[in-house]
Amino acid sequence: MTTLLGVELTDRPVLVVGGGPVAARRAEALADQGARVHVVAPHVCEPLADLVVAGRARWSDREVIETDLDDVWLVHTATGERTTDAAVVGWATARRVFCVDAGGPRRPAAGTARTPATARAGDVLVGVVSTTGADPRRTVQVRDRLAAHLRAGDVDLRRRRAAADRGRVVLVGGGPGDVGLLTVAGRRALAEADVVVADRLGPTDVLDELPADVEVIDVGKSPGHHPVPQDEINRILVEHAQRGRLVVRLKGGDPFVYGRGGEEVVACRAAGVPVTVVPGVSNAFAAAAAAGIPLTHRGVVGAVHVMNGTDGWSAAALTGLRDRSCTVVVLMGVAALPGLVRDALSGGVDPEVPVAVVEQATLPDQRVTRGALHEVAALCGARGVRSPAVVVIGEVARPGLLDVPQGEPVDALSPDPARMGA
After folding, report:
1. Catalytic residue (choose from 50, 156, 221, 343)
2. Are strands 168-173 and 246-251 parallel, antiparallel or unpaired?
3. Which residues is 251 bridged to in the sheet?
4. What is the pTM of this model?
5. pLDDT at residue 156 in the model
6. Which of 119-128, 132-141, 276-285 has the highest mean pLDDT?
7. Which residues does 331 contact at the CB level (< 8 Å), separation at least 6?
C-alpha cells in the first residue's frame, strides 16, 4: 500500500544517480525545492551540465558507489541500467533511505518511493500516485483533470493566515461582464481571496460563487456618482493587506486600460504592500468583438485608437477618422456622445462615417445601435442608450462588413492587396 507524503527537502542532501534526460528532470525539480543535489554519473546531458554550471547541483563524474548514499535523505536512480539501478535501490533499502527508481525501457520501477504527478495552484501542491504500482499515464491524466479544476478557481484555496503573515493585493481584470471571459488566473486569485473589492461593472455574478466568509466590499461607480472616491479605494486595499489578508481588486475590463489600476499599484507600493496584476479582456476590444465588429480588417483599416469620452478628442484621433486610417473606440462616452459628434463634425470628419454603440457587451441584454456619425447621438437618445456602453467609430462599424455576398466567387472575397499597399 502506498502512502502519499509531503517531504521537506530544503537544504537537505539528495542523491541523483544517472546523467540522462530523466535524471536531469529529477535533479532540476529537486533543486527547485531547495535540496542540495549531488549527481553521480560518468557523463551528463546538457541540461544537467547547465544545472551544475549554475551552481544548483554538484557532479561526481564516475560510477556510483555505495558510500554515495551516506547521510542523504532521498535517492533518485535513473541510469536506465537494470543492474546499477537495482544496486542503488538495495543500498538505499539497507540504509532505510527512500529511493525513487525511474525504471527504464520495458521494466517496472523497483524503488521504495515514487514521484507523484503534481500540479500547483498558488501555494497548494497536489500530487497523484497509483496505489497499485507505477502507472504514469493514468496518474498524469488524473493530475491534469485536477489541475484544470484548480485553475478554474472552483476550489476554495484560501489558507489560514497567521497574524504575522504579510498580506498582498491582486488587481484582477474581470473582462466585460460575461463570467466566462474572466481569465483562469483571475478565477484562481478569487479562489485564494480573503477580501474582494469589486466594481459594479465586469463579472459581478462571480461574487455569488465566493465562500460566505469572504468579505466583499462594493466600491462601484456609475456616471456622475462616485460614492467611494479613488483615494478611499486605495486606502481600503492597503489597510486590508496590512492586516495580512489577500485582497483581490476585481475590476471590469483590464486594470490598466482606463481602469485606474496604475494609481492603485502606486498606492500599494508606497505603503510597502506587495501587488500584482492579472490582465483582463478589455471592454475596448471585447464589446466590438461581441457585436461582430473587427476593430482591424485587412483592406479596410489597420490601426485602433482607444480614448476616454470624458477627455474629448485628441488631434491623433480626429486625424485618424478624417483620413479613415484608424478605428476609434470610445470608452465612457455615452453621456459625452452629443458633444463628441459635434466636435468631430466641426473638425472635418465625414458625417457618414459609420458608428456602432454596444451596450451591456457580452451579457444577455446586449444591444447594438448603429448609425452614421451625424445621426448617431439622436438615435441613441431615442433608444434610451445607457452606460455601460462602448462606441466604435470607423469603417469597420459599417453594417454587413463581414457578410458574404450571395453568389460571389471565393477569390473575390479577399480584400484587394493594392488597397493595403501590398
Report:
1. 221
2. parallel
3. 173
4. 0.65
5. 62
6. 276-285
7. 257, 258, 283, 284, 306, 307, 308, 309, 390
**Placement of cell 489597420 in the chain:** 302
221 is known as an active-site residue: yes
**Longest Cα pair distance anywhere in the chain, in angstroms?**
90
Per DSSP (E only), the strands in 266-394 are 275-278, 304-308, 327-331, 354-359, 367-372, 389-393
The CA-atom distances, in angstroms, between 129 and each of 103, 116, 136, 217 are: 16, 5, 8, 41
Residue-level length of the chain: 422
Query: What phi and psi values does residue 395 have, to the nearest 5 degrees?
Result: -60, -25
Q: Which of 68, 85, 194, 199 is catalytic?
A: 199
CA angle 313, 319, 322 (to 5 degrees): 105
Name the pLDDT band for 422 (thresholds 50, 70, 90).
very low
Residue 251 is among the residues annotated as catalytic for this protein = no
Least confident of 105-114, 157-166, 186-195, 343-352: 157-166
Spatial CA neighbour of 243 closest among 273, 276, 275, 278 = 273
